[in-house]
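User: Batch of two.

Assistant: Item 1 of 2:
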Amino acid sequence: MTKRYDLIVVGAGPAGLTAAKAARECGLEVALLERKTDITNLHRCCGQSLVSMNDYYFGDIFHFN
C-alpha cells in the first residue's frame, strides 16, 4: 500500500520541525525526513533558541518508523 502525504519536510532542524508541526496542526499528512536516526539528540540552534523534542511541545503528532 502506498502512503500519500500532503507535505514532505526535509530536515529536522528548528525550521523543519516547526514547519512539520504547523502543517500537522492544520490537518495535513506530513512526512518529516532526516538523515540522522535519532532526532531527539540533534543540537541545532536558530536565533539562539533550541527546539526540543518533548511531549509538551509536540504531543503525539510524531510517529517514528
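Item 2 of 2:
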Amino acid sequence: MALEDLEVELAVVLGRTRMPLNRFLRLGRGAVIALDAAEEDIVDILANDLPVARGRVTVDRGAIRVEVTELVRRPQVTRERGARISALGAAFVMEPSEAA
C-alpha cells in the first residue's frame, strides 16, 4: 500500500459548550445543544484529531461544505536529543544528566 492510499479521518468543529453532567445525562432525541459559535464563524478542521486547517461552512444546493481558508502551521520537526513532539509543537526536555 502506498502512502497516498492511507485514509485520514477528517472532522470539523462547529463549536463547543460546557454543561453540568446531570443535564448531559438527560440529553435525548430532539435535544438542542447551544454552541459558542455563530453562523459566520470560522471552524477548525481536524485530521486524525489534530488541527490542520480552518475554514468557512457553506451550503450549496442543500449540501453542507467547508471551504478551507487557511492551513494551520505545522510544528517544525527536530532531531535534537530530548525533544518531544506533540500536537502543540516541539517541547525541549532536559535529560536528568543535563539538569545537574
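The mean pLDDT is 83.
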